[in-house]
Each structure stands twice: as structure tokens, then as C-alpha cells.
Design goal:
The protein is α/β, with parallel strands linked by helices and 298 residues long. The strands form 3 sheets. It has a 6-stranded mixed sheet, with helices on both faces. α3 packs parallel to α8 and α4 packs across α5. The radius of gyration is 23 Å and the shape is elongated.
């Protein structure tokens, strides 16, 4: 459970770190391939947020409660997904909302504005031609389940249900000030995450939202051949906040070296030096300089 002051503080603090909880038996069972965490990783990288953890857990209330509390305590910005909310015909029994509500001692409250938007923007599924919002039915109950949100009645409702895209009825439910529950459907997840960006940028360490830069180099040398230079380089650039990475590409003749950091001008000044010492070239994509797919035994 949490206090109002704690939730208010979490909703306004500067964002340095992020965490992601992917919930769903269908992911753990291999039925669904999760792409949302990968999209979030790129989103955080581009904004300069340090995504520290991604967890995949099943539809188990106790595990969801534990993960939600821990992630909310440990990270400034937390994203999770409500299985298939927003997908026509998939209004099934998902336990994300109820579990996260219980994690913080909250009730599920039907959100009136979300219902109004749903009526205006959501078309009945072809299998439900006689569906009506005015007639009680299992289909109506299933739809309303999707807009019963974890709600702290002592806090402003507008901070707990964010409508960031006028073309969608789906809100981002915000719990405990920093847990953001998005729909699991990738196109909706991505659209709402991008819509959330203007609210996040003022709270970033870089208020312009320029984020982190990555310089990529392709080298024909084996990882062991460049290890000495890269170790020396890493120690030299670490005080500038730059990280050096080396990544073997199995089955390819060329490997990759990266520089990652916020000081783009400084990183650019190192480009020629890195190219020379790894006998490589600067590229935009790893495969850009590939000459052959034959494996390199070196």
C-alpha cells in the first residue's frame, strides 16, 4: 500500500531509471512473442532513460503484486501491459488491473470518461451485431471490465487515467504515481507510449529529450584482437560517461564495436581513432559492411 504523498512525489520526480513488467501466460508459453519490451527499450534509450530491468511473469496475482511493489520502489518510471485491452473481440478475463490495485490497496472504479470515449470510438465486433450499451449483456460487462481502473479516490483522477491520443478511447492507467499500464496490443502500446512522451520529457535529466547516442563500428578483427585497445579506451572514456562495447556476430566475418553516451561531440572526436585501432569503419547498421556470410574462424 502507499500514501497519497508518496504517489504524488513519484508522479513528479525526475526520471533517471525505468523498469518493465510483461504480464501474460501466453508470453511464457510461447504463444505470443513480446515486442513491447523491445519497443520500450528503444524509447527509453532515445530519451536517455536507463531501462534497468525487464521481467516477464505469468497471470499470477501474488507475483504481479510483488513485482509491481518492487518495481515502483526501485525505478522512477515503470511500464506494464494489460494483456489484450483495446483489441476488438479480446475483452477477456485479465487480472492485471485487479492485481495492481490490490498491490496498493486501491479499488477498481469504472472510469466515466473512458466509457464515454469507448461509446464514441469503439465499434461493435462483427460477431456482436446486436450489441448495445443500453442493454445488460456479457459483452457489455466484458467491455466495462476494461475501464474499471485502479483508483486512489484521494488523488486527482486526471493524474491516474491519461488520454494521450484523441483517436483512442484507451487510457493509460497510472498507479502509485509511476506504474503505467498500457494495452498489450503492440500498435496501441506503441502509439500510447509515444503519446506519453510530452509528459515525460520535462522530467528527464536532459529536458530536451535528446537522450543517448550510439556510434557503431564494423571490424574484421576477432573480438580477442581488439580487446586490449578497447579495455584501454573504456578506462579513458569512462569519466566522460561513455561506455565501450564489443559484440561478436556469429557466422559473420565482421564484428561490432560501439560507443554509447550523451556527449555526442566528444564521441564523434573518437571516431577516427576507433576506426584505425579496430581496422574498421563507421556504419549505421551492423550488416552494412558485410562482405560474406562465411564464418570467420579467427
Amino acid at each position: 500500500m502507499t500514501s497519497t504523498s508518496s504517489a504524488e512525489e513519484r508522479s513528479k520526480r525526475m526520471i533517471h531509471t525505468a523498469g518493465c513488467i510483461i504480464i501474460g501466460d501466453e508470453v511464457l508459453g510461447g504463444k505470443t512473442v513480446d515486442t513491447n519490451s523491445a519497443y520500450l527499450a528503444k524509447f527509453c534509450f532515445n530519451l536517455g532513460m536507463n531501462l534497468k530491468r525487464v521481467e516477464v511473469i505469468g497471470d499470477d496475482e501474488s507475483e504481479i503484486i510483488e513485482a509491481a511493489r518492487r518495481m515502483s520502489d526501485n525505478y522512477d518510471f515503470v511500464v506494464t501491459r494489460q494483456e489484450q485491452i483495446g483489441a476488438p473481440g479480446d475483452e477477456h478475463d485479465d487480472i492485471t488491473y485487479q492485481s495492481i490495485a490490490r498491490a496498493f490497496g486501491l479499488k477498481l472504479v469504472e472510469h466515466e470518461d473512458a466509457l464515454r470515449r469507448m461509446k464514441a470510438l469503439s465499434k461493435p465486433h462483427p460477431s456482436q451485431p446486436n450489441f448495445s450499451y443500453d442493454e445488460p449483456s456479457p459483452a457489455l460487462e466484458a467491455k466495462k471490465r476494461m475501464i474499471r481502473l485502479p483508483t486512489d479516490t484521494s488523488r486527482d483522477d486526471t493524474d491516474q487515467a491519461l488520454f494521450v491520443d484523441e483517436s483512442l478511447w484507451v487510457p493509460i492507467s497510472v498507479v502509485n504515481g509511476n506504474i503505467h499500464i498500457l494495452p498489450g496490443v503492440p500498435r496501441l502500446f506503441e502509439k500510447l507510449l509515444e503519446g506519453l512522451k510530452p509528459r515525460l520529457v520535462p522530467r528527464l535529466t536532459d529536458p530536451e529529450g535528446k537522450g543517448v547516442y550510439r556510434l557503431l563500428f564494423s571490424t574484421p578483427l576477432a573480438e580477442s584482437a581488439v580487446a586490449g585497445y578497447l579495455t584501454e579506451l573504456a578506462a579513458r572514456v569512462e569519466p566522460k560517461g561513455v561506455k565501450v562495447g564489443s559484440y561478436p556476430r556469429w557466422g559473420k566475418k565482421r564484428n561490432s564495436v560501439t560507443l554509447v553516451g550523451r556527449d555526442k561531440e566528444y564521441m564523434e572526436s573518437l571516431s577516427s581513432e576507433v576506426e584505425k585501432n579496430v581496422q574498421g569503419i563507421r556504419v549505421e547498421r551492423e550488416e552494412e559492411a558485410d562482405q560474406s556470410d562465411d564464418p570467420d574462424e579467427g
